[in-house]
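Supplementary Methods S3. Complex input for the iron/sulfur cluster-bound model.
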Amino acid sequence: MNNRKTVKISNEEIDQQIQYVVDINKMIKNKGFKYHIITYGCQMNVHDSEKLAGMLSAMGYTETSELEDADLILFNTCCVRENAENKVYGNVGALYPNKQRNPNLIIGICGCMMQQSDAASYIARKFPFVDLVFGTHNLHRFPKLLFDAINSKETIIEILDEEGRIVEDVPIKRNIGVSAWTTIMYGCNNFCSYCIVPYVRGRERSRQPSDIIDEVRRLGQEGYKEVTLLGQNVNSYGKDLDNPYYFPNLLMDLDKIHGIERIRFMTSHPKDLSEELIRAMAESSKVCEHLHLPIQSGSNRILKAMNRRYNREKYLELIDRVREQIPDIAITTDIIVGFPGETEEDFADTLDMVERVRYDSAFTFIYSPRSGTPASKMSEQIDDNIKKERLQILMSVQDRISKEINEAMYGKTYEVLVEGLSKNKEDMYTGRTRGNKLVNFTASEDVTGKIVKVKITQPKTWTLEGIMV
Ligand code: SF4
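Predicted complex, serialized as structure tokens:
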């Protein structure tokens, strides 16, 4: 039971941050200062970077894609996988010559990785030329922290242990396009035994429905056609709110918003996928026929060790119920191989689940121990070569299934929301079906931002090709 209540940041605190935005704006006026943000990890992090970019724009910075041109370089880090962490340290270290050339360059590091114990002090020790370090719970204090970093010779470090309160009205600089993300809740209560997220993002905190609805309404007015609702476990949205209002209620309210044509969400924990939610998905005209439902393992023994709180039978039942009510739904998943103690038999159970569910696609990962999580202390860690071998086998099974599913789309016509010209396919447009499949297609006119009908002429394993009809 979650008894925590969502608390918004006070107006006074917001006013203080706005004053820092104004002060920095005055300080850098007419200097043409530029920023460059490097983002690691999930969509939540990408969306946090949109907020940092929004604050920087309000301060008067402009974005540059070139590191060399930047007056401010920010690393928004992720700690879910070890190799992402190593990459951050390597990339920060590589900036030392830049800092020597330009002592006014500000280098900052923020995000989940900084929220881990000792990460900030390690940075201060190993990379003393870094100017600013902050965590996930104080992103809204970025204007003050940056102001201090610009005016100090010391590294400014601020990591709050207590999970962040909800901050509304942070300026957001979204990529211009047809789709936008909006966070509906923060944190996670689930403590899957391999996952660091609850330790670095805190417990679940839901935004007020009216704040989300207003934001999505504004997105519709600004011309966005699709919104993706983000949260570590969106299915438990609302459980901490005072009034009974849950994720299905939110979907039905967002369904009425003019201008928004498609609603997506991620991620969903199977244990919280309720009958009401399946019904809301089926009844809503805008919620897309796509469900990302991480299974993680097909073995009941491993699911228990992962603390996932469902078993394969319950998961299969859910899939049946979803397909009964939404027959054309595309289902995708996340799978970890090589969790401590995973035997050949456990791995065979995972393959069996993949064959039974027939996922449209899957994000497959090798288990990587994260210090501070229970799984990292488990005995029977699996040999790296075995993990790699299992990953290859899993990927080849999933690729075959993805290809078969896509081949069944041959000759059929789908609604595609067009994102623009394809980056990889010359003279082709690119967009997504409601099932979230990427389609490249030819069209005789510019159809960017429109929903068009495309007939599939060439199904491939990961993408589709077609012609507009
Ligand atoms: S549901 Fe599990 S895997 Fe997902 S963020 Fe929460 S603890 Fe991590």
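The longest strand covers residues 413-421. The chain has three domains: 11-158, 179-407, 413-468.
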